[in-house]
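name: query_chain
kind: protein
chains: 1
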Amino acid sequence: MTDETKYAWQGRVIRLTQHDLDAWVKAYPYITVTSALQAKDDELWEIGTEEEKRKWFYATSMWLMAMNMTQERLTREAKRTWKDRTDPNRNDPFATQYGKNGHYD
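structure:
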């Protein structure tokens, strides 16, 4: 099996089998894994130490997890309506309450 057929995704440093790529795509549904892999591969190639280049798998997986968690949070927040949002003045006893149209009266 040549390198061209062995890996489903291959950069200068990062090389993933189809099994590993599928696992990451499934584990991190809020991001585009292949785009993130390209960015991480570029970073490792340009500024990564030799040790970072050798131990890229775990660090990359954790980096993808952090990106996925951030994107999931942002996606959930974007889906919330004004009624669901926390009133920024909720602890201010002198703040007015939301009116019928969602504006301060």
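note: The beta strands are 9-10, 15-16.
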